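Sample intake sheet
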Amino acid sequence: MDIARSLRAEARRANERRLLVLAGDPESTRERARAALDAADVPGAETTVVGPEPFLACEQHEQSRAEELLGRTRTAVVLDAHEELRPDALGRTVGAVDGGGLYVLLAPPLETWPEGRDGFDASLAVPPFEVEDVTGHFRRRFVETLRVHRGIAIVDADTGTVEQDGLTDPPPSRPVQSPTPPADAQFRPETYAQCLTDDQRDAVRAFESLRTASEALVVEADRGRGKSSAAGLAAGTLAVEGRDVLVTAPQYRSAGEVFTRAAHLLEVLGSNFARDRASNPQRLDVSGAGCVRYAPPEQAALLPDGPDVVIVDEAAALPVRRLEQFLDAPAVAFTTTVHGYEGAGRGFSVRFRDRLEESDHAVTDVSMTTPIRYGDADPVEVWAFRALLLDARPPVDQLIDGSTPETVEYRRLSAADLLADEHLLREVFGLLVLAHYRTEPSDLARLLDAPNLAVRALTHEGHVVAVALLAQEGGLSADTRAAMYEGGRVRGNMLPDVLSTQLRDEAAGIPVGQRVLRIATHAAVRSRGLGSQLLSEIRAEFADHVDWLGVGYGATPELVRFWADNGYQTVHLATSRNATSGEYSVVMLDPCSDDGASLAARHGTWFQDRIPAVLSDPLDDCDPDVVRTVLRATHGEPSLSLSEWEWRLVAGVPGGASVLDTNPKPFRELARRHLSAPADATALAPREERLLVKKVLQAQPWPTVAEELGFVSERECMRTLGGIVERLTRLYGDLWVQEELDRHQ
């Protein structure tokens, strides 16, 4: 109790946070946590327990629901890690603690914790591995960070022994001088008077751009920098000016600070406003002016009632495809947490930023670095960044600028290698984080502990320039394959799962493969062949030991071409969009043995058989360039077996004697044949191939096809398709078919 009281007093004096670790028996740690928070004078109303049991009289969530704390501020958060320690839950909750508050971690005895196996470890034990095969490297490193970082007290809850008191004797926090309002500000002075830092003032100033249509704003910051408050100040001001401001976030709680600050500003301005508590408590109506209202993302994306401005808070936690929908708003702002706290990886910065730059909006970027919730020397933030590698970065450009396939070294990096070299670990993980939209804090634990994963890298003068994360899949027992085939959930083994459950191939789990989970090349040395070099080295290493190499990812034309150029062939295109990337996922295989070749051949054939039907139904909105590249990446020559009547129908289209709608089937077969394995790859221009996809394979209406492909009229679009059919008929039809074609010219 004395330790907790002292920690809290020091934290309040310095406007920092402190971490209290209570290690030992579950009941002992929970009882001591109760006594510690009482001694530290932390009210239950300001406390949240994240764990399996509501042992305190306060808010409680399972670790799986840790996102409930996003965008919120608490005086104390207790993370109960006895049953499991989820790295994502740690990352999502630690940032919610306010300056002067405590983060309390309940854990087994630290000496034995890395050797035990918990619920999270069980999730890493994917078949055919068992939980005993999971290592304890992540928690071993985690415990080491607890023991070496400032501001962390460790207490043996069983004996009451204080291993370290966590006191740092910092100087008292100094009052922060209020920022000076911009001289030429368009928002009212009272708005800027509410800003607490220069960063926040600059962010609010950037929101002024949203007074004009076709503007977009991106505000990036770590947790606790006041970005949601800045959004709230701007929203309130815009509402006073008569604008309808629509706010959205993953949950309303995440956007709560926006409404709190907006309402406070309206009070300061003396505005007459009403908060609708009867039907929609998330709405502020300013009398005679505008409003600030909330809608959940799926509703807000439809832009209900035509808002003037949309503010998307915690944008990185939303799927990329959902974010794209907000680009239809007149003006839009995205606030997002960097360094992975939002737990949604890098979807915003890796995938969505390209879409934003291509939009019709003028984009303004603002970064906020000065903490508001706590002091800028806060030791808990420093520890969290180190423990989860939230600030990991690849090497600086200058160190790897001379990298070529001839200068790099192929390295097989074990978990022991990464643990022994913190700098190497930071470069590997930093490259994965910055290059991929799905990397999360839990991926660090997988990297270090999962028995089915392997890390391979290319290094230049000791620095990582390209890295791949591989997962062993397949080699499953008959019982596991049967359970998978019957719809049972089998962890890991994504490719056998898709091929077995969705495509009804129970034998797909027999061959053993290595799936490329992630591959990343340093941005400074891309387009030099390093990614292909890494895949080539991987194949050379594994080809004699596995049946296949595989990959599944959100398909873009560039990525499909990359994998096809490296020998991978299409076997499946998902019929629903990936929830995070917003793209249709493609599965590709590179067979390494006869069994692997048999697997790829039968699924390649089945893919060709079903693709015409799915393109005209669930995939009718798939990007035609994705369709073109996915089909071109199939191996083998698909059959083209048209009846005499079907050939006569096709041959009559160019001269106007017949029409496509009489029977689209032969036209689809002809299109599939050419797009998959063209007899002459130069026969059609890219736009003509897109026309084949959109009209023939996806059966889209003529007006839609003509508009989206830039034809001046539907008639021109129809004539172009007639010319395409003529060329393909001459390319693939027998002599009598070409004579039939000439008959109608």
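Comment: The radius of gyration is 29 Å. The longest strand covers residues 463-474.
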